[in-house]
Structures are given as structure tokens and as C-alpha cells.
Input
Amino acid sequence: MACVLWVLLSPLALASEAALQTERLDLTHSGVGYLALTIFVLAYLLVMLEEKLHLRKSKPVLVAAGIIWGMLGFVYTQHGMPQVAEVAFKHNLLEYAELLLFLLVAMTYINAMEERGLFDTLRAWMVGRGFSLRQVFWLCGLLAFFISPVADNLTTALLMCAVVLKVGGDNRRFVTLACINIVVAANAGGAFSPFGDITTLMVWQKGIVPFADFFDLFVPAVVNFMVPALVMSFFVGNDRPAAVSERVFLRRGARRIVGLFLLTIASAVMAHSFLGMPPVLGMMTGLGFLQFFGYFLRKTFNSSLARERAIAEARQDRERLTYLGNVVPFDVFSRVSRAEWDTLLFFYGVVLCVGGLGFMGYLSLVSEAMYSHWDPTYANIAIGLLSSVVDNIPVMFAVLTMNPDMALGQWLLVTLTAGVGGSLLSIGSAAGVALMGQARGIYTFGAHLKWTPVIALGYIASILVHMWINASTF
Output
């Protein structure tokens, strides 16, 4: 305790008299600053070792955020400026709250669609068609690319991987290549949509890139996916495994929930584009739509179930009767509870940690080093490479906090690289980490690393294509 107090109260911990005249103290060369950096690095090392330690990634960053802002509060209180630290904390908290509620609604809809059987129906259709391995490889990649702009890339990757494992069986090479393809496709698909990834959502909500301009990244994202997919497809056999018959029932209201989700997205876009309000307003309104629909499903549950059971009995459909016996009423709040709370809490810890380091002045130093002494293009490419090792959420939040003066083309570039850079390593994205667990022992860090040079070709090609076709935005 005495050691910690010495760090906090030592001359290095306190800003100079000149700095006291400003609202923000420069703590970059202070004991507090060095301690905060150390705490953040240690916390992030624990995050990177999540698979080995079986420690959820939210825990270390939550603790780190509390310690960093606790130290900031202590230092600013000692200087008679507690309100300055409080306002800074609330500013970061508000940014997180907007993203939290947005993501919570999106996750609730995705979980509702999953509970209604939409994803199971898609999987059953794919495994029952008798496609060849190469066709499954391409179909899973294309579906991952086009589903992830609307659903999150984690859910998309898990769905496609389930198909690959069902079809591939003991064919380890096919499963490995298909998983790599899915990770690359899901990350690339999320890069051109404001809803496809947390990083693109942050950029959109910040108001830096207009909604429609994200779609300038569509062609570069296609290139990022297609280049490695074309190369890997030559190593996938053309065997045609036997079709696996699987009967899946689509629950009542599934298609209408999809329609409500599209209406919710439209509400978020209109709230931001036409009303000048945060997109979260439209998303929360959309959650209200889902709650009303859930109320309707519950009120009509018994009559609907009786009608469906009568039809099944008339057809002597025992399988459907068994299914109907296990049907329960739809509950919106059970879908909310199934949101990825570890990810949402990890996001809180990251936003507050990075925000605290930025408030100390470290992000200004990084911004000066990267965006003043480097060409912005090289800096943004480096951001993508960094996101393959460090999660792209803190990387992008740091860039947004630094807010370098860049052209629209450069902001689109850093959005692209932060989104697809995580594909270079299996640990670089949530999709890769999840698939290492789902296809444990087959899709591994080492198996992905062997194909990193091919994925890097797609990374480089997508950057060059963006700089070519979107040259007018630079």
C-alpha cells in the first residue's frame, strides 16, 4: 500500500504547475501513467491467454478499468479538480452506453431468430442437399460473407462451422480450410456494413463515415475474401459425401421477426441520417416492436398450438407432434439474457481503459507518432496488422479517440484494415477464436498460420483495390 501511495504522490505522478492551468493534466511521464500502462498491458495479456487460462476476457479489463479511473480520480482530487475526471469518465461511459444498447438489441434479434429455428433450417437445408466438398467450401464462404453484414460475424461463423463439421466429418484438411475460409469471409463481410462489426458500428455512430459511404468498401471486401478463397479452393477435394437428412421445424413468427429486424435497422438508419439522433434510438424502438410481437405470440400461443397439433394428428405426423410437445411460449427477455454478455462487458472494460489512457495523454503521443510522422496510409495499414494480434475493438477505439485529421478515404481504409486484419491470425477475431473452440484440435492457431501468407495476399489486394476505385475520397 505504501508503495502504491508513493507512486501516486511522487513528483512524477503530479503534473507541472503549468499543466495545472489547463483542464487536463499530462500524466504521460508520471508514475500514475506508467502504472496505468502496466496494468492495461497485464490485463490484455490475460485476455490474449483466455483459451489457455479459461478466464473470461471481460474480467481483467473490468478490473483494469476500475483501477485506472480510480487512480485518475485520486490524482485529480488531489489537484482540486475532481469534476474534470468525473466529466471525462461520464463522456466515455456515454459512448459505451450507446454502443451497448445498440449491440444488445442486435444480439436479441439474432438470438430470437436462432430460437425460432431460422439458422437450424438453413443448416439442415445445406447438409441435406448432397453438395460436394468444394461446393460446401464456397457456399459456406459466400453465406458467411453475406450474412455477417447483418448478423454479427461470430454467430455467422458458428453457424457455417456447424455445417462444415457435419459435412466434412473426419476430413481434417477440408474442415481446416473451410474454417479459415469462413473466418476470412465473415470478417470481410462485416467490414463494409455499419452493422457488420463493432468497429464499423463505432465509426458510424461517431459520425465520421456516413451510412451510405461504408458500401464503398464492398468491392475491396469481396477481393479480401475471394483472393485467399480461390487459392485454398484448389486444395479442397471434389468428393461428394452422402446427404444427411435432418428435419427441422421453423417456429411460428420466424419470418416476421426477420421483417421486424429489417424494420429496426431501417429505423436506426433513419434516426441517424434524417433526424440527427443517435442510431440507438431506432434500435431501442425496434426492441419495442419485438416486445409487442412477443406479447402477440404469447397471447395466441395456446390457440395456435392446438391448431397445429390438430393438423399434425390428421396427417399422423408423429415427429411434428413430438416437436409440438416441447414448444414453449416466446419470451423476449430470455433472448436478452442470452446476449454475449462477456463480449459486452469486455467492450466496457476496453472503452474505459483506452479512454483513461487517452485522458492521461498517451493517445495524443501515439497519434503524433503515427499520423504526423508517418504517411496516414502506412499508419492505417499498420493498424490492421496490429488488430491481428490485439483485438480490433481497442485498436479502433484508440484511433477514434485520437481522431486524426484524415480524408474520408483514409477513414474507410482504417475501417477496412481493422475489420479484415484480424483474419491474418486465428486469434485476431472473435470468429477465429470461436471456431478454434468449435473445431477443437482440427482448426488451430498453427493450422491457420500456415495459410497466413495467402490471407495476406487478400489483405494487400483489398487495400490496393480500395485506393484504386475510391481514389476520389482520398
User: Anything to note?
Assistant: The CA atoms of residues 134 and 234 lie 9 Å apart. Residues 82-115 form the longest helix (34 residues). The two ends are 52 Å apart (CA to CA).
